[in-house]
Design a protein that fits this description.
single chain; 408 residues; alpha/beta; 10-stranded mixed beta sheet; 15 helices; 10 strands; globular; binds S-adenosylmethionine; binds iron/sulfur cluster
């Protein structure tokens, strides 16, 4: 990791910019985007066999600075990514993989769409990857007319992390004062510009401050004309995040999920020709959607994540980096020991620990506290240490006891 940081810094020095400013957070060790649109676990693989020769889905951790300060987000200061870096690093190291992928997600820490050279960057993507679905996750502030114009002419899925149907909740969560109405206008403009090649998803990180608003959020998605609303439970990355986790307010979360589901059905029945999807996390408890049946996750055959530091992960649930693209080639990683073991374990059902706790693999895992906290070892340890026996007693002995007895 240190070598890569030196290489990155050297590359950016040549470009006279600073990659990772002094006093910045350490390089990330996880993709940190629980909202990655990797399809549903049992979704068909769009015409390709799961055992594809190259990943059908690639996520690039294109970290950048951010104008928001979401209260559940990991802090970090990043800069330096841009078109030159993309060409020098990602294209050189992953070229054929990028060309073959069906979808490429540009995400990570911060706002990729706020890059100073975002216009030439999008022009480059439109030119070099015209038929690939390019996915950007954004807080919506960067959807300026210039950006919308570039997106309009390409094939894109834009995921807008809005989290609330009301300005006050939005501001409380994102610490972006006065931006809610601007973002709504940006979404309306994007929707107006969208042809059939541009999809829009509204994202909601469900937590104790916005959970009651979830049905209204679905209604807002309908009114804005977006293609889908996707909600996820918050992942705690530090002890302060625990108070935001719906794991500790399960009955309230279940009520909101049910109301959101019913509202979606009633809205969708108004116009069956309109595409308006809703993806919610499983309810808590023994409800039907918190199914105990495992779903074979196909990501080991489909997906790879690489960030600007070269760190490689199979998915966003993974806590520790599994390889580095600066030391191992893409081919040697994708067909190497880690991916082989991961695939074999998934096929046999003898799962690796991260998969065992993943709600994507088994929806009933939402009933386990570990599915609501990061799997990064150090941060997980700090969070579990912060949970006193009194706290854990409040959430039900069977669930918390089981979770906390696991090694961290
Ligand atoms: C890190 S952000 C980067 C992209 C962009 N800045 C945004 O907000 O959409 C990627 C996604 O992760 C979500 N996210 C951030 N912190 C989270 C957390 N603690 N738990 C779950 N999702 C989180 C964000 O809301 C966003 O949807
Ligand atoms: S807008 Fe995205 S990157 Fe920025 S603070 Fe919020 S979640 Fe984090």
């Amino acid at each position: 990791m240190e070598t890569q940081r030196r290489k990155t810094a050297a590359f950016l020095r040549r470009r006279r910019v600073t990659a990772v400013p002094e006093n910045s957070a350490p390089a990330p060790t996880s993709s940190f985007d629980p909202t990655l649109d990797l399809g549903e676990p049992d979704a068909p693989t769009a015409g390709k066999a799961p055992e594809t020769a190259t990943p059908v889905s690639i996520t690039l951790g294109t970290h950048n600075a951010c104008n928001a300060k979401c209260i559940f987000c990991m802090e970090g200061r990043f800069g330096g990514f841009g078109l030159d870096f993309y060409k020098e690093f990602f294209e050189k190291k992953l070229g054929p993989y990028l060309a073959e992928a069906e979808q490429i997600t540009f995400t990570g820490f911060g706002e990729t769409l706020l890059l100073p050279d975002i216009a030439p960057f999008l022009d480059h993507l439109n030119r070099t990857l015209p038929n690939t679905k390019k996915i950007f996750t954004t807080n919506g502030t960067a959807l300026t007319p210039g950006v919308v114009e570039k997106l309009r002419t390409g094939k894109y899925l834009i995921q807008i992390s809005l989290h609330a149907s009301r300005a006050d909740i939005h501001e409380q969560l994102t610490l972006l004062p006065g931006e809610f109405s601007v973002i709504l206008e940006n979404i309306r403009a994007l929707r107006k510009a969208a042809g059939e090649n541009l999809e829009i998803t509204l994202v909601n990180v469900v937590n104790t401050l916005n959970v009651d608003d979830l049905p209204e959020f679905v209604k807002l998605g309908w009114d804005l004309g977006v293609h889908r609303v996707r909600a996820y439970y918050l992942t705690a990355f530090k002890p302060e995040h625990l108070r935001l986790s719906c794991f500790f307010d399960q009955a309230r979360a279940n009520r909101a999920l049910q109301a959101a589901r019913e509202l979606h059905q009633s809205l969708a029945s108004r116009d069956s020709s309109r595409r308006f999807q809703l993806f919610l996390p499983a309810s808590f408890g023994s409800s039907q959607d918190a199914s105990t049946s495992p779903v074979q996750c196909r990501l080991p055959w489909q997906h790879i994540f690489v960030d600007i530091y070269g760190s490689v992960l199979p998915c966003c649930q993974w806590g520790e980096v599994v390889d580095n693209l600066n030391k191992t080639s893409a081919e040697a990683i994708w067909n190497g020991p880690f991916y082989k073991t991961l695939r074999a374990s998934m096929s046999s059902g003898d799962l690796l620990p991260a998969c065992q706790k993943c709600p994507r693999f088994k929806p009933a895992n939402v009933n386990d506290l570990l599915a609501h906290i990061t799997s990064r070892p150090d941060q997980k340890k700090a969070i579990l240490a912060a949970l006193s026996p009194k706290d854990t007693g409040d959430v039900g002995a069977d669930v918390s006891g089981k979770s906390l007895s696991l090694p961290c």
